[in-house]
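Please discuss these two lines.
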Amino acid sequence: MKAGTLPSPEPVPNRTTTDPARPVGSRPAAGTAGQRVLLVDDSRSIRTLLKIYLMARNFEFLEAESAEEGLKVAEAESIDLILTDFHMDGMNGADFAAQIRANTNPKLAKVPILMMTGDPNVAEVRALGQKAGISAFVRKPVSCAQLMTLVDTILPLPRK
């Protein structure tokens, strides 16, 4: 393998994966897969990169291209962690986090939220996110190690 290249990843399960053993959107059998992560970012390439970075945790991924779509997915599915971008068309990541925190479902309202941004005004974006109730914040571009450390901190591995 050349320096600076990534190995070809194994297929990463997501909401659109079709497995004949289970319907789309259903939870995998106990012990066969990890926790469920909702990726909310208007960039497909960023969502794909996040999945590659988080492959080691055996997450099941759900995806949304906007905060509005993310709210619908979060309300319809069981979610263990949300990773959201700050800048998106329509609702931004801080407003999305505030909507999650205000949700009437207490389990959803407590889901850890990691907000990411490439905005040069990091202090302002971080303050907005903290006011909205985010669990962690990271500036893009994020490294694999940095992301894994944050995720491991806010969402420990499930006990067996």
